[in-house]
Amino acid sequence: MTSVEVGLMRRRHVREVAAIEQVNQPHPWSPEVFRKELAMGEQRHYVVATRDRRVVGYGGLFFAADEAHVTNLSVADDARRRGVATRMMVALVDVALERGSTALTLEVRAGNTAAQGLYRRFGLAPAGVRKAYYQPNDEDALVMWAHDIDGPSYGERLARLRGTLDQPSAMAPAVEALS
Predict the structure, then answer these.
(1) Helix, strand or coil for residue 48?
(2) pLDDT per residue of the chain (179 residues) written in tens, 0 to 9
(3) Among the options 46, 119, 134, 154, which is catalytic?
(4) Pairwise CA distance, residues 156 & 1, whole Å
(5) Is 58 a catalytic residue?
(6) Please, which residues bridge with residue 143 across strands?
(7) Strand order across the 125-134 sheet
(8) Catalytic residue selected from 21, 37, 107, 176
(9) Is 107 considered catalytic here?
């Protein structure tokens, strides 16, 4: 696999992002939703992972007070289990820290243990359940939180995760199938 780059999502990426969204999500966001999210400026931050100029993943955050909320994180089928989601999460956490966030949160499908494993590596722990959160099948969402992401302990965790990105064999057991 050639090198994966993570950068800022632009309007020109929306078509490819929406194509991945259509495959990975039972109730996908439309291209228009992504365009509206991008237009929200500093309230949102979206990244894309690209390989050979092709979008292979995307993720986003919205900000509320000192919290960063992961809105979505998704990887194309042919790019999973190669560190793409980890690379995007590192980039998203970096932005959250730059913007003064002290906590990170997200919802993940209760049945998506693969994504939950990735999020646990980033220090997110289950904190509750949102019943029938995901449509159209009324699947529950597990709410996960990581607090004190601006502290030294979390900084060490992030440094360890960053180190795994340069070691392909270390990423083999990593799970990249995301909610």
Answers:
(1) strand
(2) 468 999 999 999 999 999 999 999 988 999 999 999 999 989 999 999 999 999 999 999 999 999 999 999 999 999 998 999 999 999 999 999 999 999 999 999 999 999 999 999 999 999 999 999 988 889 999 999 999 999 999 999 999 999 988 654 333 333 333 33
(3) 119
(4) 28
(5) no
(6) 107, 128
(7) 5-8, 44-51, 54-64, 67-75, 103-109, 139-147, 125-134
(8) 107
(9) yes
